[in-house]
Amino acid sequence: MAKIKHNNFLDTVDEVITNATRAGVIHLHAEGNELNGRQIKVNGKSSFHFGTTGYLGLEQDKRLKKAAINAIKKYGTQFPLSKTYISHPLYAPLEEKIFKMYEHPILITKNSTLGHLAVIPTAVREGDAVILDHQVHWSVQSATAVLKSKGVTLRMIRHSNMDMLEYYIKELRNKVNKIWYMADGVYSMFGDFAPLQDLMELSQKYPQLHLYIDDVHGMSWRGKHGSGYVMSVLKELPQNMLLFGTLSKTFGASGAVLICPNEKLHRKIKNFGGPLTFSAQLEPASVAAAIASADIHLSPEIYDLQSDLELKINYFNELLALTDLPLIHNNESPVFYIGTGLPTTGYNFVNRLMKEGFYVNLGLFPAVPVKNTGVRITISRHNQMQEIKALVEAMEYHLPKALEETHTDLNRVHQAFKLESKSNPKHLNHENLTIRLENSILNIDKSAWNTSLGKKGVQDWDGMKFLEETFNNNELKEHNWSFWYLLIYDQKNRLVLAALLSSSLWKDDMLANAIASKTIEEKRLTDPYYMTSNVLSLGCLFTEGNHLYLDDNHPLKNEALNKLMATLEQLEKDTNSKMVSLRDFSENDRLHSYFQGQGYFRVQMPDSCHITLRPNESIENYIDSLSSRSRRHYRKDILAHEPTLEISVLSELDNSQIIQVKKLYDKVRKNNLGLNTFSYPTKLFENMSESPNWEFITIKAPEATEGIIGVMFCYKNKNRTYVPSLVGIDYDHLQTYQTYRQLLYQTIKRAIHLNFEHIDLGMTAAFEKRKLGASVEGKYAYIQTADNYTLELMGLLESR
């Protein structure tokens, strides 16, 4: 019945990246006639380069440059032929040298992304399963999409959560053949390592477990012959592991390398590994540069280079330890991450550092959660000790400035990253504002509430009293909600901001598509609370419309908004919420930029529908005002059936009717997985029956022995708004009597009869509501999550 508009993940990413581009921190262009690795020129200013992934600086080595130049002179700019047929003359020497580095069969690929696309669909067979670390590189996750058509079982675990990994191994071990766990050796944002020893222990415990490790960020700066972080820990590659390294990044050339100790699997991948078979091979210049780099890796010189880098990494760590800079992960890798929390703070901080002459990378969504924005710093051999010290001094000076200018503090950064705070929290108090946070509408003046937030929907004073009484002291935890009412006044007791807030248990897939929800609901048959989380929300699951009042003309409105953000963060912590949802905003809402800067990303919700009725409206005049096409639908689908139906408006229901209408509502809820919510308690429908503010429009059909075949649950907001909040339908009679359309018509007819001014028709089914004259408005929510795990898991499930 209801068509849900699901958020397009690409649209969300596009908004975030566009915002960062406008802030001047990404999509930049290096300038000048040459590069040296140590400095980089951007926007006319030369800066010390702390953003490279060429950690050993080999991309500027004269030997690699000379080899590449000579190769172009001798062999041309490319060898345009698939490597399956014939390789150019430099390939064999390179393969021999890379084999010496690992002492296992290897395959060289154009790059790691194409390598994963070649290897994963070949290595993982029908009847296998794959478990992804949710922070494994995008190129690995993307390559697994091919497996879905083969019926391969896919799972995802929270980052490096070995308990969760073992749980899924146990679940799958009697159902599949091999179980592949895919992870990074060194993670590219925070610089942390895969828990390799734990993985080895799990491999011994569960022989089905196979490991697929992308170690491109661990390459060259660690390990024998620069074979990478994974080899530095394991020393010998186990038979149950496939390892990816790189010939670019720290290696200084181009391409990637698969190390495959299983010779039979190595042959299969080589013979038919998708991009290996059909894509162009590496250019002669790249292969020649890689040969020159391999010679360095096979010589004692590689250990001198590693030691030089290690000294600089240690020095940077020593300097950071003397500061209060929020280093997110203490490690020995060349990758460091300084948290800023809010994107707007990250933009400010990066721009400040660039003006000081330091180029660093911004870490932002989707690589990290939006509120985990920060500065990604990489240390390379190009960096000199004095430059490293100067960078730390610049960060120590500018981070407090960036925090202050963006109305936040270090404590909020620590809270966003779940770090132990080193400072006393600042509450962003403003001497000219008075803050009230109440947990019951009974503590709020009725007139003040109704004139600010109670004009529409069920969220007037009486409606909130009803919801507080209903979603309290229930048996199931999903039926118990907490409410807060935030009111911010100025010194003259004028209301600057008001907000309705709630906390309740949500299904993580509430706004996911029906495919994902169907898969998850199967799991919930045995685990009812699988993939559910506490959510702190503007409004609640029962209300729709305006949940935030803000005096746009008040000079302290920004300070009031900052207090709202601080309140949300405290309540998020107190309620252990995994997500904050600011709901029901229009596409061009004035607060769009503010919310994005505060670490929220926007998702599209189902459209909202409403009708504004003219004074002294009659149902006849209303129908006459519809388009000719809509009038035809009205005559065919509504008027033709109305005389044969028993239509009633009931102010209360008996026990048997309550049971009937709840069953009808549950049928709609279960049929509409596109907006997947928990059921409501029977207490809700009982309280509706007892309340003078609720009434029920019911439809009975002559041959329907079960009685009611359709019901609309309608709330009468005393500010002259009629609110059909829920609908229940018997689908066996839906097409025969066009029950849903009849209910919509009867709702409009009833609102006109009661002389209401507005009808809030709510979300979903916009096509049907538009036919009967409703105005349709796109609605958006601003979301902030504790991590990206749920979002990425939804993406994995939705694409099945």
What does the model show?
GO terms for molecular function: pyridoxal phosphate binding; transaminase activity. InterPro entries: Acyl_CoA_acyltransferase (IPR016181), Aminotransferase_I/II_large (IPR004839), AON_synthase_class-II (IPR050087), PyrdxlP-dep_Trfase (IPR015424), PyrdxlP-dep_Trfase_major (IPR015421), PyrdxlP-dep_Trfase_small (IPR015422). Residues 55-393 form the Aminotransferase class I/classII large domain. The chain has four domains: 32-55 and 304-314 and 323-389, Aspartate Aminotransferase, domain 1 (Alpha-Beta Complex); 62-297, Aspartate Aminotransferase, domain 2; 433-605, Gcn5-related N-acetyltransferase (GNAT) (Aminopeptidase), CATH 3.40.630.30; 609-781, Aminopeptidase. The protein is 38% helix and 21% strand. It has 28 helices and 27 strands. The strands form four sheets. Strands 15, 16, 17, 18, 19, 20, 21, 22, 23, 24, 25, 26 and 27 form a 13-stranded mixed sheet that branches. Strands 4-10-9-8-7-5-6 form a seven-stranded mixed sheet, with helices on both faces. A four-stranded mixed sheet has the order 1-2-3-12, with helices on one face. A hairpin with a 7-residue loop joins strand 23 (694-700) and strand 24 (708-717). Helix 2 (62-75) packs antiparallel against helix 11, helix 3 packs parallel to helix 11 and helix 13 crosses helix 14. The two termini are 22 Å apart.
